[in-house]
Structure formats: structure tokens, C-alpha cells
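[Meeting: bench + compute handoff]

Bench side (C.D.) handed over the final construct sequence. Compute side (W.E.) agreed to return the predicted structure before the next meeting so the bench team could plan truncations. Sequence as handed over:
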Amino acid sequence: MKKLFGIIGNPIKHSLSPILHNYWFEKYKIDAKYTIIEATDKDLPEVISKIKSGLLAGINVTLPFKQKIMNHIDRAVNDAELTGSVNTIFLNNKKTIIGENTDVYGLQAAYLKEIINSANKKTLVIGAGGVSPSVILALKKSGIRKISISNRTKEKCIFLKKKFNFLTIIPWENLKSEIKNFDIIINATSLGLKDGNDFDFVFNPTMNDLIYIDTIYNPLQTKTYKYLKDKEKKVFNGLDMFIYQGQKSFYLWNKINPEIDEELIQLLNEKLK
């Protein structure tokens, strides 16, 4: 019987996860299909029930459920336990619903070479939502010690500071004036997402060797990405992070480490044009 996998989120139509995983299923001749599951909070118990019964072999989790889903699984492990954020779920051989986090690995694998030896560089994470705990943990694992966070809702920053007590909170109203002081800036919000809102101010960083990372991959180049690229700053979109987190999810489900080949990258880029 064909195995069924999916991604749960809302909104979810922008996701490239079906293209990514179905490409690998075909390449490795796995009888499986990956689909989109648009859901609301009340649907979460039913989705988990389908995993328990075998109707779903596994799921990825995206906004706004990465934290909410924690209340419905049996056990969060590894980076999921450390962040309180889950993006990959499966049933283990003991019939336990396991929640994992592959976003941390995705960010490290995609950008580690750029942020290595950056222990003393001042780093700013913008946003305190679903992917932010993973970004913070990835930075910490990479040896970065000076990490600040800013979010429209200060309470979310305070919540994250309880988990990561080394964080410095930058009030949102001070962000425009403070942003020039950072060496690494990571946009962990949905600002810039295709057909969505963007930052309501222009970045004016003074650091010559600034690194800017968007966790967004649709569009490949947000307004801020384009602006900083034109200023000859080092900029990255979220596509590599997306691919690497998907690679680890695929391994957790299938015990195969899939190849990231040029054909796959070209396919994803074509879909984003």
C-alpha cells in the first residue's frame, strides 16, 4: 500500500515540500506520496490519530503549528525538546508518536560555513515565532554568543528568553535605529513572504561584512534581500535551509539520506520563478 506523508500548516499552498519529497520518492523508488494538509487548531488531534493508525506515515509541521503540535505528540526528542518546536513527526517501532526538529540542522547545514568563527559577532534574530527557537539554537550550536532578538509582540521575546537566557531583547520600536549595529541578521518572520507584508522601514546596516539570512524562500529574493544585495552585502534566502531540513526529515522517515542534486535544485527554482 502506498505510504502517505504530508505537511500541515495554514496557509500552506506556498509550500514546496510536496515537490521536494515526491522527487526523492520517485528517485529512490519508494511507493509513497507527499501532500499538503491545510488545517486549523481543531484538526490537530485527528492528524495525529491518522499517524497512530498508520493512515499517515509521517508529517512535516509548519506555521502556525510548530509549538502547538507539542501538546498532541507522545514525546519530543533532541532539538525538538531543546527548542519546544516540532517540524517532523513519525511513529516509532514502539508505537510512540515522536516529534523531531530538523530546522536546526537545516540552518546549520545551509549557512554554517558562513557563520563559523563568528563567536564575537553581534547577531540579531528578527521574529519570535515558529522557526525562531530553531534559529537561536542553531546559532548557539555554531558558537555564536552575542544573540539579540526583536519582535512586534515583546511577550514572545520574554518567553524565548526564559528558554534561552543569554538573549538580549531589542524593543521593536528601537529596531530601525539598532539594526545598524549587527554583523549577522536573520529574518525569522513571515515579512517578505510572497503576497504578504514586508518590513515598513529600509535596512541601513553599516557593517561591511554583514551577513543577512532570510528564512523565507518564496520569493527567492525579498525586498530586503534585493536591497542588501545591491549594497553588496552577503545575502542568503531560505531555500537551502528548506532543502536540508527536508533531507533530514526524509531520512528520519525512510532511513535513506537523499541526494541534493542539480536536477532537484533546478526543479525548485523553476517553481519559484
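W.E. noted at the follow-up: Residues 3-101 form a domain with the Rossmann fold fold (CATH 3.40.50.10860). C.D. will use this when planning the next construct.
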